[in-house]
Design a protein that fits this description.
Blueprint (H helix, E strand, L loop, with lengths): L2 H19 L3 H17 L4 H27 L16 E6 L7 E4 L2 E7 L11 E8 L2 E6 L3
Parallel strand pairs: 3-5
Antiparallel strand pairs: 1-2, 1-4, 2-3, 4-5
């Protein structure tokens, strides 16, 4: 089997492995394998092919990977709207059951239901907003 075909197969295997790991390292090694496959197709002997692979993979790992990782690790976007209410504390204004109730979340009054339908949360209790369904907050008491 030709050496360039072996390098090409290695590049494909590393590319597929990168899809499952998302580390950017295996993809860069796959790219180095592609460069080496091109060098092998041009007829370079095996020692020079190994040198091409070593240099191109080192360049990728040292130069390109830190840049790629900076772009992958973007800070979490700030939540807006009803998504921003999930996880916030709320104050029970009217007893909350599995069917109805009222809570105050950040100065606004919301209709509410207990996240666990078997619970009855008394007026004056502090709860956490677990989920927002339409205009209804699903809440769970802090004491439990």
């Amino acid at each position: 089997m030709e050496l360039w075909v072996i390098w090409l197969v290695l590049a494909v295997v590393l590319g597929i492995a990168e899809i499952f790991t998302l580390t950017a390292a295996l993809g860069l090694l796959g790219a180095a394998s592609l460069v080496t496959a091109a060098a092998a197709a041009l007829g370079l002997p095996l020692p020079l092919q190994l040198l091409v692979f070593a240099l191109s993979s080192a360049a990728g790992i040292v130069v390109i990977r830190p840049i790629a990782m900076r772009h992958i690790r973007q800070p979490q976007l700030q939540r807006f709207g009803v998504e921003a209410l999930v996880g916030k504390p709320a104050y029970v204004v009217k007893e909350v059951t599995g069917r109805e109730g009222r809570v105050r979340i950040g100065g606004e009054e919301w209709s509410a239901r207990a996240y666990d339908e078997t619970l009855v949360i008394p007026e004056g209790a502090t709860v956490d907003v677990i989920e927002i369904e339409g205009a209804t907050a699903l809440v769970y008491p802090r004491e439990y």
